[in-house]
């Protein structure tokens, strides 16, 4: 090994992130450093290896030599990451990236059952709606709602879902028996910030109506809060079946109409290849499958 290589180690890591993120600014944000600090590390490498990027306004294009170097670096850093994971396996710790909706409304209320079965496994949750980069974090796996198209990740389907309207038994007394769509003119609609094809416009389309007027709308990004407001009788809520399955079973919430919007997305358990042999991840996945089983249609 060249004696100078350790001197460039930090710069090599910065170069790897720049190439993967596509810009100095994105790399700086990922590494939580300034853009000038990233530029400084790249200049250090360019003093040794020559130009690594063709710099154009609003565009940063890696040179051929840069791509060749970056390819070798990614392989090396992947081996290092795998080694770190192997050393962590003995600690029986798993760190999960979870959607806030499924995390707060579904997983956390059930997590005590896993902890009772496997008291030696420590579970850490990172709740975020963003698609995290598993190569830049200490995350072992995650739960996502999507099509299963996650490059460089292993995606294992858990269950599908659907969207429909619910309300509390108290709120139901304000509706005709059986309820009709025109009753919604007097109701507050509570919904989350899901895409339009998973939200109110798509549900209305599924009813066959051109429009269904409501008295007022309230959008809350946290699906757990949407459910809580519905439970308290504040209005009607557009929700996903999986998230309110327990409340429907207990009678705390009532499905208002037979109309359901079947989602094209599914819940997936995703993990990077380096987590594939981790015992704690395998155990958690098997437990998760059994918990999702009643919600599969």
TrEMBL record:
For the HTH lysR-type domain, which residue ranges apply?
14-63
**Where do transmembrane segments lie in this chain?**
none
List the PROSITE patterns.
HTH_LYSR (PS50931)
Q: Which Pfam families match?
A: HTH_1, LysR_substrate
Sorted alphabetically, the keyword list is: DNA-binding, Transcription, Transcription regulation
Question: Which Gene Ontology molecular-function terms are recorded?
Answer: DNA-binding transcription factor activity; sequence-specific DNA binding
Picking any one GO biological process from the record gives: DNA-templated transcription
Q: Which SUPFAM superfamilies match?
A: Periplasmic binding protein-like II, Winged helix' DNA-binding domain
Which family, according to UniProt? Belongs to the LysR transcriptional regulatory family.
Q: What is this protein called?
A: Transcriptional regulator
Q: Which organism is it from?
A: Gynuella sunshinyii YC6258
Q: Supply the source organism's classification.
A: Bacteria, Pseudomonadati, Pseudomonadota, Gammaproteobacteria, Oceanospirillales
């Amino acid at each position: 090994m060249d004696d100078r290589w350790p001197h460039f180690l930090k710069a090599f890591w910065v170069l790897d992130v720049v190439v993967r993120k596509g810009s100095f600014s994105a790399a700086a944000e990922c590494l939580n450093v300034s853009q000038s600090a990233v530029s400084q590390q790249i200049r250090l490498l360019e003093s040794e290896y020559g130009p690594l990027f063709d710099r154009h306004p609003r565009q940063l294009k890696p040179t051929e030599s840069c791509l060749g170097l970056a390819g070798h670096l990614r392989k090396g850093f992947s081996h290092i990451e795998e080694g770190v994971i192997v050393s962590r396996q003995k600690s029986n710790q798993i760190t999960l990236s979870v959607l806030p909706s499924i995390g707060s409304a579904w997983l956390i209320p059930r997590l005590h059952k896993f902890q009772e079965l496997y008291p030696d496994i420590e579970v850490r949750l990172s709740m975020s709606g963003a698609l995290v980069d598993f190569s830049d974090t200490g995350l072992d796996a995650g739960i996502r709602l999507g099509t299963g198209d996650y490059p460089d990740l292993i995606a294992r389907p858990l269950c599908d879902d659907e969207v429909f309207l619910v309300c509390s038994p108290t709120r139901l007394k304000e509706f005709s028996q059986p309820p009709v769509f025109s009753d919604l003119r007097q109701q507050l609609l509570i919904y989350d910030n899901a895409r339009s094809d998973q939200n109110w416009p798509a549900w209305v389309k599924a009813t066959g109506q051109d429009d269904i007027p409501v008295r007022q709308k309230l959008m809350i990004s946290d699906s757990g809060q949407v459910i809580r407001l519905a439970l308290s009788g504040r209005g009607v809520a557009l929700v996903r079946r999986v998230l309110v399955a327990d409340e429907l079973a207990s009678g705390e919430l009532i499905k208002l109409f037979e109309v359901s919007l079947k989602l094209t997305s599914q819940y997936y358990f995703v993990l990077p290849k380096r987590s594939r042999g981790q015992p704690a991840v395998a155990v958690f996945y098997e437990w998760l499958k059994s918990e999702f089983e009643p919600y599969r249609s």
